[in-house]
Hints:
alpha/beta
Amino acid sequence: MSAEAKPSSIAHQLDTVRQRILGACDKFQRSPNDIHLLAVSKTKPVSMVAEAMEAGQVHFGENYLQDAMEKVETLGEGPVWHFIGAIQSNKTRLIAENFDWVHTVTSLKIARRLNNQRPESKTKLKIFLQVNIDQDPAKSGIDPATLGDIVQEFGQFQRLQLMGLMTLPTQRDSIDEQRVPFRALNDLQQQHLHTARDLSMGMSGDLEAAIAEGSTWVRIGTDIFGSREQL
Ligand SMILES: *Cc1c(COP(=O)(O)O)cnc(C)c1O
């Protein structure tokens, strides 16, 4: 690949994704101002993140802490980092110190650790609660039946700001089927979260369905950075 081909291709793919978002907003009567694009750069090199930044992208999502830290340390304060991977207790300190958003909080235990470890010098850590909307035993996330209790406890966390709910549904093929779990997440948000307004839902394969059902953050990896090796 030539030196010029790579940057222009990421800029081009970003532009294509932005056009898809605008198309979905138009079709489903959403305001483009309400939809934020999170570029999921997991497993991709720092150079690709830098290219996306040059093309105007600010928010980046990472799943694997070790893979993320090199990028966080190299790129400094320019990007806004979102943690979107599974969280082990022994990793919460690095997440609380280096990320501004976490989309994958699935327990009060993890929330408490993030709260205690968020540095005073930083803004509150913005949190999405991850819900296992399909109640799929193979997926992590809060059982919808226990969500109300967890939300009630959240008031005690002075260093966290609850932004809304996130989900990663079981894969479905048609847009109508994809809309079902997203609508269910939006319903849960209405029912249990009275001040939080964000919904983190939609990836490369289902962003239109997510926008149709109220998403405010779409998390797009493959369609910006290309396919990934399994990590
Ligand atoms: C990898 C990942 C994405 C991006 O998925 P693509 O299908 O590559 O767009 C979004 N959200 C989460 C939680 C992920 O792990």
